[in-house]
Specification:
With 450 residues, the chain is of the alpha/beta class. The chain folds into three domains: 123 residues, Methylthiotransferase, N-terminal domain (Rossmann fold, 3-Layer(aba) Sandwich); 234 residues, Alpha-Beta Horseshoe (pyruvate-formate lyase- activating enzyme), CATH 3.80.30.20; 55 residues, Nucleic acid-binding proteins (OB fold (Dihydrolipoamide Acetyltransferase, E2P)), CATH 2.40.50. It is built from 15 helices and 21 strands. It has a six-stranded parallel β-sheet, sandwiched between helices. A hairpin with a 4-residue loop joins strand 20 and strand 21. The longest helix is centred in the last third of the chain and has 24 residues. The protein is globular. It binds 5'-deoxyadenosine and iron/sulfur cluster. Iron/sulfur cluster binds next to helix 8. 5'-deoxyadenosine binds next to strand 15.
Length: 450
């Protein structure tokens, strides 16, 4: 038997890319590939790329440049680019970097085996179509191997919102939801293989409208169906748009015990003028009211958000409105970015904010959210939370996992294994994680708001 071929697969960007990378590895696994974390051992190098900001896209080209030496030593090495840069730039990638053999867009991963075969014939392979067939069904089933306690599951792809700064509607296409039964059977299969927490993924996950039993299913309906799967203990979803936060989903946050008290709900900015120019179709006020309603349903929910500073024509006053909104919400987590011009998007053509102004605003915004994140984490000290343990920590006898609120938690000893859920009393709050001690697992968990 010949030695397996080796695949070096590097993932950039969001969790949807992480999910896609797993599926690509499985598709190529069917062709005899095993993964390696050493590019120098690889027979194929595949970069699963992100196009959301300029820096992310440029990283791909500098990474590709680094493989030139490897390809010179090993002419059989095939190099591929997948993901959103592949979708956005297509053939241009091969022109700019001739050592690339294969370019595959996010909707065509199921065609990877044929494409790989083509490259073995010495040809270049390019596929950035939005094909009719369902890539999820065409991809080989996930292998039946046991797996870790947490998993991503893509339920929806694409976006119809067309925020003025964003490439996603162009790179990932229109909103498409997977049929509910396929998601449920994938979830059941994951649970049989040891998964206890599933994060439902979608560029606009709460715009989910999948065909299901009795008609069109909302995300809330899907969550309630997942709630009925024995052995599945935790459900999360990301990323949501404020305008799709429907009543049934808010209600599920109050009533579905498996739905975790954490919500990533990007607002992007706090000035109504900027929100309008961003084409967000909500105001700062409507967002704040929405957060109030969500907190009325689930008072201890930890809010998370995304922010862009230096969007075209953002004034100091507009920026101050973003800081005010952050103050008003109190985020447990937040991700912030300098506006990055993306060719082909409406905002790219508008008057730009100077780079040093963006830098200054980003620093000020990050200082505020770091304080808030830290306060939310510190407020956990003294509380008892449930933790799903994922892996051993760096110290002997240490286990690390995530609380319901997604804080990393480490404990010492306790005979725990990956996949165990235990009640933990939080005793310390460090730079990036909480420390605690496992208490009697039958002890009540304090889920009162911090
Ligand atoms: N510039 C900066 N940030 C962006 N995002 C999306 N497009 C851009 C851009 N052109 C951010 C948004 C989004 C997150 C995934 O990335 O905040 O919510
Ligand atoms: Fe991009 Fe806006 Fe769609 Fe989110 S909602 S993916 S930011 S266009």
């Amino acid at each position: 038997m010949s030695a397996p071929k080796k695949l070096y697969l590097k993932t950039y960007g969001c969790q949807m890319n992480v999910y896609d990378s797993e599926r690509m590895a499985e598709a190529l696994g069917g062709e005899g590939y095993v993964q390696t974390d050493r590019p120098e051992d690889a027979d194929m190098i595949l970069l699963n790329t992100c196009h959301i900001r300029e820096k992310a896209a440029e990283k791909v080209y500098s990474e590709l440049g680094r493989f030139r030496g490897l390809k010179a030593d090993k002419p059989d090495l095939k190099i591929g680019v997948a993901g959103c840069v592949a979708q956005a730039e297509g053939e241009e990638i091969m022109r700019r970097q001739p050592l690339v053999d294969l370019v595959v867009g996010p909707q065509s991963y199921h065609r990877l085996p044929e494409m790989e075969a083509k490259t073995r014939q010495g040809e270049k392979a390019l596929d950035t179509d939005f094909p009719e067939e369902d890539k999820f069904e065409r991809l080989k089933a996930r292998p039946r191997a046991k797996r870790g306690p947490t998993a991503f599951l893509t339920v929806q792809e694409g976006c119809d919102k067309f925020c003025a700064f964003c490439v996603v509607p162009y790179t990932r296409g229109a909103e498409v939801s997977r049929p509910a039964e396929r998601i449920l059977s994938e979830a059941r299969d994951l649970v049989e293989r040891g998964v206890r927490e599933i994060t439902l993924l979608g560029q606009n996950v709460n715009a989910y409208h999948g065909a299901g039993d009795g008609g069109d299913w909302s995300l809330a309906r899907l969550i309630w169906a997942l709630d009925g799967i024995d052995g599945l203990e935790r459900i999360r979803f990301t990323t949501s748009h404020p305008n799709d936060m429907t009543d049934d989903l808010i209600e599920a946050h109050g009533q579905c015990a498996k739905l975790m008290p954490y919500l990533h709900l990007p607002v992007q900015a706090g000035s109504d003028k900027i929100l309008k120019r961003m084409n967000r179709s909500h105001t700062a006020e409507s967002y704040l009211r929405l957060v109030e309603r969500i907190r009325a349903a689930r008072p201890d929910i930890l809010m998370s958000g995304d922010f862009i500073v230096g969007f075209p024509e953002e004034t100091e006053e507009d920026f101050q409105a973003t800081l005010d909104l952050i103050d008003a919400v109190g985020y447990g987590y937040a991700y912030s970015f300098k506006y990055s011009t993306r060719p082909g998007t409406p905002a790219a053509e508008r008057p730009q904010v100077a780079e040093e102004v963006k830098d200054d605003r980003l620093q000020r915004l990050q200082a505020l959210i770091t304080r808030q994140q830290r306060a939310a984490q510190d407020a956990m000290v003294g509380r008892t939370v449930k933790v799903l343990f994922e892996k051993p920590g760096r110290l002997p006898g240490q286990m690390v996992g995530k609380s319901d609120y997604l804080h990393a938690v480490h404990v010492q000893g306790g005979g725990l294994a990956a996949g165990d859920i235990a009640s933990v009393r939080i005793t310390s709050s460090g730079a990036n994680s909480l420390g605690g001690e496992v208490i009697d697992t039958s002890a009540p968990v304090d889920s009162a708001p911090a």
